[in-house]
Write a structure and sequence with these properties.
The protein has 106 residues and is α/β, with parallel strands linked by helices. It is built from 4 helices and 3 strands. It is globular and about 45 Å long.
């Protein structure tokens, strides 16, 4: 893989807030050909799983998603200062369901 990227990591802030995230990933795969791309998210946006699903289906086996879940509902609210546990767990469950139901390995 000489001359190619081993991987790219999107983290810090919230990558899913960037409206051009899918386009940026397209450009990376076209020109840099990374082996894997990893996206770390807090999972708080209600459409996080949809964003991830669209990217994963386009690039099966090439994307790794990481969603932070800081414990149970009480611990989450205490550590994050907001009540987002249900949104995050819903997004995680949707991604697990996608992985289980897709013919392609994502």
């Amino acid at each position: 893989r000489k001359g190619l990227l081993d991987g790219v990591v999107f983290c810090g802030g919230e990558p899913t807030l960037h409206k051009d995230l899918p386009l940026i990933i397209d450009i990376l795969f076209k020109y840099c050909k990374p082996y894997k791309i990893s996206i770390a998210s807090n999972g708080l946006l209600p459409n996080t799983s949809t964003i991830f699903k669209n990217i994963a289906l386009k690039y099966p086996n090439k994307i790794r998603f990481k969603i932070s879940l800081d414990g149970n509902k009480e611990t989450y609210k205490k550590s994050r200062g907001i009540d987002g546990h249900e949104i995050v767990t819903k997004n995680i469950q949707e991604l697990i369901s996608l992985k289980e139901n897709e013919d392609k390995k994502i």
